[in-house]
Amino acid sequence: AAAVALAAAPWRDPPAPPDALALAGRIMRGGASRVVAERHAQRGHHPFDSNCLVCTLSAGRHRSHRRTGHLQLGAVSVDLACLDQAGPIVLVAGARDPAGASRVVVVPVQSKETDVLFGAICSAICDLEYLYAIPAVARVMCDREAGVTAAAPRFAARLTKLVTTEGHDPQANGFAEGIVLRTTNLARTLLHPLADTAARRSWWVVAMQHAAARISLVAPLPAGARISLDDVPPLWTRVQAQRPAPSASRTSPRRELAAYL
Q1: Which of 83, 70, 97 is nearest to 175 (CA)?
Q2: 135 burial class (0-12, 13-18, 19+ CB within 10 angstroms)?
Q3: With contact defined as beta carbons under 8 Å apart, do 104 and 134 qualify?
Q4: How far apart are CA 206 and CA 186, in angstroms?
Q5: pTM over 0.90
Q6: Which of 45, 52, 141, 152 falls between 20 and 30 A from 2, CA-CA?
């Protein structure tokens, strides 16, 4: 079914998979061997390595992130992130499972309107509960984004409490700011081979969703999870799609050629 869905989607040629050593930052610093550099690049530059030039150049500025007072279980922290001032915008949502591991999902948003953000948060909650088997969400933690705070009555209607930070200090939402930093750093690293700004914006959402999955799958998954590390190969990995049934309609004639996104 997944192969049929992939084949039915409008075809868009992915960028050519970059060379492993090019991704590794022209050989890692600190005297790392060629084999170590290639292995680090093939893992998609995850986890972060300070010896890798690509990792360090793609990393954002580190800021202090203070703890929040909300409960870890049954709570989701959300924040918005974008590649640059021109967008595109994504909603990053994170929660902790019973073992304390961080699970992250990314949902694209078209604007900061209340209806859009409320729908994106609800979608993120469903993904976290379904894919990573986190406990039922009863609290949503965010900063004082106007589009989110206006949706407080809607959250109350679905028996979910909206908790916002005090004042206008974005660093007070420490857990959300932390996962945004890690996810955007990895996404920018994945997009480093693309020199064209327009191409980076085009693949930003895909890179963020991939980065969120890679970060979430580092720790062992709890019972009931419906995703595994085998389901998330490195970005732009060449794959062979299964030919759909002859009765399938509206499929691309190039459906057998694909790249993992």
Answers
A1: 70
A2: middle
A3: no
A4: 12
A5: no
A6: 45
What are the E-state strand segments in the chain? 75-82, 89-96, 102-109, 139-142, 161-164, 238-240, 257-259
One-letter amino acid for residue 41 of the chain = A
d(CA 132, CA 95): 10
Task: Report whether 183 contacts 189 (CB < 8 A).
Answer: no
Q: What backbone phi and psi angles, to 5 degrees, belong to 232? A: -130, 80
Amino acid residing at 119 = G
Q: Token pair 């010896």 is at which residue? A: 51
What is the per-residue pLDDT for 38? 74
Buried b or exposed e, range 5-31, using 16+ CB within 10 angstroms: ebbeeeeeeeeeeeeeeebbbebbeee
Strand partners, 163: 141
Distance (Å, rounded) from C-alpha 104 to C-alpha 210? Answer: 10
The residues pairing with 95 across neighbouring beta strands, listed in sequence order, are: 103
Structure tokens at 47: 């986890």
Give me the percent of the chain exceeding a pLDDT of 70: 64
